[in-house]
Amino acid sequence: xxxxxxxxxxxxxxxxxxREAVEPSQTKLVLLYFTASWCNPCKxxxxxxxxxxxxxxxxxxxxxxxDIDQNKIIADxxxxxxxxxxxxxxxxxxxxxxxxxxxxxxxxxxxxxxxSQLPIEAGDNSQANVAxxxxxxxxxxxxxxxxxxxxIFGQIYxxxxxxxxxxxxxxxxxxxxxxxxxxxxxxxxLPETVADKPxxxxxxxxxxxxxxxxxxxxxQLGALRAKVAAYPDDDEARFTLAGxxxxxxxxxxxxxxxxxxxxxxxxxxxGAARTKLLQLFEVVGIEDPWVSTQRRRLSAILFR
Length: 304
Fold this sequence. Notes:
Blueprint: H1 8-22, E1 29-35, H2 40-54, E2 61-67, H3 72-77, E3 85-90, E4 93-97, H4 104-117, H5 126-142, H6 146-159, H7 164-177, H8 180-187, H9 198-213, H10 218-230, H11 235-247, H12 251-264, H13 272-284, H14 289-302
Parallel strand pairs: 1-2
Antiparallel strand pairs: 1-3, 3-4
Domain Thioredoxin: 2-116
Protein name: Thioredoxin domain protein
GO molecular function: protein-disulfide reductase activity
């Protein structure tokens, strides 16, 4: 791909493509699926393609989805003219255009033919594949592209449905796309061996917030803000407001309300504000720079 004269955003997109598609293609067959939110045929073709690829993951096939409106530089560089478009990438080179294959049998036939011709690594390296795909998916999720992350995590979930890291990541990606009901399904009836794992617990916390967000009343939120402004010592109102702000992903606003409670009475309601803060930290991610900043803020209050 040419990178001459690109702005910083396009350069970043190219670098991401190289990391997430070109590098894995050195040993795997990477399918590049170009779609768009306004594409009606994509609404039926996409799920079909994902279903087929899930059956080929153990054979060394992976799928990466690109919205052409959000990845215009990639679509332009690969001369994507319409959607849906599916290219096969191996060792950094486009080796096939699978776009004409629209039925399940046609896609399988195309994949079988490619796998018979290319030295794709599979089988014994399945665990390494899961680790690589999981790392890729989490990088994509952290970048905010939950739909692409879902596509990757869905493939891994079919391979390792009992892996806590896979369960947690897949559920969080589903929540970020707004598919709360499917996340509930993934997190229901968990094996006892994984139910208490940190990755799963983080996803469960995120699910609780997503479920709460469905019931947040905007008018009530405004009334709560007014009540807190009028009665700044009303810790119960602040706590309720913080919970609603967490639910709608206003983490700064939620943290400010919880810190205000701690400033007023760090032991209020048996330390409920601190417990709520820790839940927020868990959902955002312990390694996130924002969490590190808020932890220092919390320590300054608790240990002064």
